[in-house]
Amino acid sequence: MPRRVRAVSHEDRLSLVEHLDELRHRLVVCLVVFAVALALCFWQNHLLLEIAQHPLPEGHKKLTTFSVTEPFTTTLTVSAYGAAILSAPFVLWELYAYILPAFSPAEKRVVLPILLLFPILFIAGIAFGYFAVMPAALHFLLNFNDEQFNVQVRAGDYYSFFSMTMLACGLVFQLPMAILAVTRLGIVPVQWFSQNRRYAYLVIAIIAAALPGVDPISMLLEMVPLLVLFELSILLARWFGRPSEGAGAAEPSTQE
Fold first, then answer.
1. Which of 206, 221, 103 has the alpha carbon at shortest distance from 169?
2. What torsion, rounded to 10 degrees, do the Cα atoms 34, 36, 38, 42 define?
3. Is residue 205 a contact partner of residue 125, using CB atoms and an 8 Å limit?
4. Contact criterion met (CB below 8 Å) for 212 and 168
5. Between the CA of residue 38 and those of 17, 41, 70, 85, 110, what are the distances in Å?
6. Alpha-carbon 72 to chain mean position
7. Which residues contact 238 (CB under 8 A, 6 or more apart)?
8. What is the spatial distance between Cα 182 and Cα 191, in angstroms, rounded to a whole number?
9. At 64, is the secondary structure helix, strand, or coil?
10. What is the C-alpha separation between 34 and 29, in angstroms, rounded?
11. DSSP letters along 140-209, please?
12. How many CA atoms lie within 13 A of 145 on its CB side?
């Protein structure tokens, strides 16, 4: 039975084996959390399926399956997607906790408040995807040339599209946290984002096109909040400002 890995501080100097031991411990914890979330989602699979079906317009809520095993496999897949969404904040926190000892105490005071934004932004992204992106995208896709097609919504395809859209929206809403982190840590100045705004817009358009959804409505709905979040991130970075130059001098590094 592997021993519990103790908390690592900035002053600790760990060997490669100790780093791998800590990483293994955190991976096991993440797998346990995912397994618990999967069991919970599978237990409440009827509620989960009803929530996922809600954005569908009337007449398309009875989804189609094409095999004997598809209802079970689709339910299990949806439960896994739900577990991934539920456990994502905890998994990312474990990732941050793994790399956090690399920061000095002064840098930690900058990073930790930013980390508190993660669950808020993740939930905001999920809500935006559920209430804004999904209804508009489904209305466009299901009514596009509908007089030429007998539109049948397959359960597996729909639930995969729904789950990936929710997860993608939750993750892309982390843009302000990323920009705040690199500016507060002094890695990239705030002026760089302002001066390269046109390139940022191009990258945002590419990201929106790469997100789940092949229709222009989904792309536009996913691109608009990214642009707003980018501009908001610049304003927040200017408001918080860069870390004071004296902060580093006040707490000398242990490596000196």
1. 221
2. -170
3. no
4. yes
5. 31, 5, 18, 10, 34
6. 27
7. 190
8. 12
9. strand
10. 9
11. HHHHTTTTTS----BHHHHHHHHHHHHHHHHHHTTHHHHHHHHHHTTSS-HHHHHHTHHHHHHHHHHHHH
12. 2
Instruction: Return the residue matching tokens 């998994």.
Output: 91
Q: From its phi and psi, is residue 145 left (phi > 0), alpha (psi between -120 and 50) or beta?
A: left
Residues in the chain: 256
pLDDT tens-digit map of 184-214: 767 788 888 888 888 888 888 887 777 766 5
DSSP state of 6: P
Query: Are the CB atoms for 57 and 142 separated by under 8 Å?
Result: yes
The number of helices, as runs of H, and strands, as runs of E, in the chain is 12, 0
CB atoms within 10 A of CB 52: 22
Helix axes 155-172, 216-240, angle to 10 degrees: 20
- Residue 245 has a pLDDT of 45
User: Which span out of 73-87, 88-102, 114-128, 217-231 was modeled with the highest average pLDDT?
Assistant: 73-87
Entry pTM: 0.70
Phi and psi at residue 189, in whole multiples of 5°?
A: -75, 155
Residues facing residue 154 across a β-bridge: 64
Asked if 211 and 168 count as a contact pair (C-beta separation under 8 A), the reply is: yes
